[in-house]
Design brief:
mainly alpha; rod-shaped; about 0% strand
Length: about 140
């Protein structure tokens, strides 16, 4: 009986199956979610989230078209990519609006609009506090 030779390795530019793309989507999504607590991770999550979404959707559609069962990693990639992108986008928007609206605008301070000196009024309900300037 003749020995069969192993299959030839795929070419470098060969099209990947849904399992490879699904795994890449899952890795991008998990890395994006894991890096969210860091400052640079938020920026990376804005990039990794959509990458995981696109890879996951392509892998899922290829798996459905080819009848393969490699959709689980693609679904995990889609879910984690969406979470990573959404949370990072919300953090960036809140940070930018906080920076924009927290400016030191002197016209907006109510204390500067008052004329005269600031006076603090205290009410003595117990009758034990002496009044400034003499009679107690």
């Amino acid at each position: 009986m003749a020995a069969s030779s192993p299959p030839a390795p795929a070419a470098a530019g060969a099209r990947q199956g849904p399992a490879g793309l699904g795994t890449k989507a899952m890795v991008c999504g998990i890395v994006g979610v894991t890096l969210l607590p860091t400052v640079y991770g938020i920026v990376l999550s804005v990039l990794l989230g959509p990458a995981a979404l696109v890879l996951g959707l392509v892998a899922r559609s290829r798996a459905r078209r080819d009848g393969a069962v490699a959709g689980r990693n693609a679904v995990i990639g889609i879910a984690t990519g969406a979470v990573a992108f959404a949370v990072a986008a919300v953090v960036i928007v809140l940070t930018l609006t906080g920076v924009i609206f927290s400016g030191d605008d002197e016209e907006e301070k109510p204390a500067d609009r008052r004329d005269g000196e600031r006076v603090q009024v205290m009410t003595d309900r117990s009758g034990t506090l002496p009044w400034p300037g003499g009679a107690g």
